[in-house]
Protein backbone atom coordinates (compact mmCIF):
# COMPACT_ATOMS: atom_id res chain seq x y z
CA UNK A 1 0.00 0.00 0.00
CA UNK A 2 1.60 3.25 -1.16
CA UNK A 3 1.02 6.27 1.01
CA UNK A 4 0.95 9.72 -0.49
CA UNK A 5 3.11 12.31 1.25
CA UNK A 6 1.14 14.35 3.74
CA UNK A 7 0.51 17.94 2.79
CA UNK A 8 -0.56 20.79 4.97
CA UNK A 9 -3.97 22.21 4.14
CA UNK A 10 -2.57 25.65 4.96
CA UNK A 11 -0.60 27.02 2.01
CA UNK A 12 2.07 29.27 3.51
CA UNK A 13 4.62 29.06 0.67
CA UNK A 14 3.28 32.22 -0.99
CA UNK A 15 3.69 34.13 2.29
CA UNK A 16 7.42 33.54 2.75
CA UNK A 17 9.22 36.85 3.44
CA UNK A 18 5.93 38.56 4.29
CA UNK A 19 4.70 39.84 7.63
CA UNK A 20 2.26 37.68 9.58
CA UNK A 21 0.65 37.82 13.03
CA UNK A 22 0.59 34.67 15.17
CA UNK A 23 -1.63 34.05 18.21
CA UNK A 24 -0.48 31.32 20.57
CA UNK A 25 -2.49 29.25 23.00
CA UNK A 26 -2.83 31.42 26.07
CA UNK A 27 -3.42 34.58 24.03
CA UNK A 28 0.12 35.89 23.39
CA UNK A 29 0.51 37.48 19.95
CA UNK A 30 3.61 38.17 17.88
CA UNK A 31 4.18 39.85 14.54
CA UNK A 32 7.11 39.18 12.24
CA UNK A 33 8.39 38.10 8.84
CA UNK A 34 7.85 34.43 7.92
CA UNK A 35 11.14 32.86 6.79
CA UNK A 36 10.33 29.15 6.73
CA UNK A 37 7.90 26.46 7.93
CA UNK A 38 7.48 22.69 7.96
CA UNK A 39 4.63 20.17 7.71
CA UNK A 40 3.81 20.52 11.45
CA UNK A 41 3.48 24.31 10.92
CA UNK A 42 6.57 25.06 12.99
CA UNK A 43 7.48 28.56 11.82
CA UNK A 44 10.78 30.41 11.62
CA UNK A 45 10.18 34.16 11.85
CA UNK A 46 12.48 37.18 11.91
CA UNK A 47 12.06 40.75 13.17
CA UNK A 48 9.48 39.42 15.62
CA UNK A 49 7.73 41.82 17.99
CA UNK A 50 5.37 40.87 20.81
CA UNK A 51 1.97 42.56 20.59
CA UNK A 52 0.72 44.94 21.89
CA UNK A 53 3.88 45.87 23.84
CA UNK A 54 6.11 45.95 20.69
CA UNK A 55 8.86 44.19 22.69
CA UNK A 56 11.49 43.06 20.16
CA UNK A 57 12.18 39.31 20.14
CA UNK A 58 14.21 39.06 16.91
CA UNK A 59 14.64 35.63 15.27
CA UNK A 60 12.12 33.13 16.65
CA UNK A 61 11.07 29.51 16.05
CA UNK A 62 7.34 29.09 16.75
CA UNK A 63 6.19 25.57 17.59
CA UNK A 64 3.24 24.66 15.39
CA UNK A 65 1.40 22.73 18.11
CA UNK A 66 1.14 25.93 20.18
CA UNK A 67 -0.19 28.17 17.42
CA UNK A 68 -3.86 29.01 17.86
CA UNK A 69 -4.34 31.22 14.80
CA UNK A 70 -2.50 33.47 12.40
CA UNK A 71 -3.28 36.43 10.19
CA UNK A 72 -1.65 37.35 6.92
CA UNK A 73 -1.58 40.86 5.47
CA UNK A 74 -4.73 41.40 3.44
CA UNK A 75 -6.95 39.28 5.69
CA UNK A 76 -9.95 41.04 7.18
CA UNK A 77 -11.40 40.27 10.59
CA UNK A 78 -15.10 39.46 10.43
CA UNK A 79 -17.77 39.31 13.09
CA UNK A 80 -18.15 35.86 14.67
CA UNK A 81 -21.36 34.39 13.18
CA UNK A 82 -21.71 31.90 16.07
CA UNK A 83 -22.16 34.44 18.86
From TrEMBL:
InterPro entries linked: Lsm7/SmG-like, Sm, Sm_dom_euk/arc
A GO CC term assigned to this protein in UniProt: Lsm1-7-Pat1 complex
Sm domain location: 7-76
Domain of life: Eukaryota
Entry's Gene Ontology molecular function annotations: RNA binding
Pfam families membership: LSM
Swiss-Prot/TrEMBL keywords: Ribonucleoprotein
Residue ranges of coiled coil: none
Database matches in PANTHER family: SMALL NUCLEAR RIBONUCLEOPROTEIN, U6 SNRNA-ASSOCIATED SM-LIKE PROTEIN LSM7
Full protein name: Sm domain-containing protein
Organism the protein comes from: Paramecium primaurelia
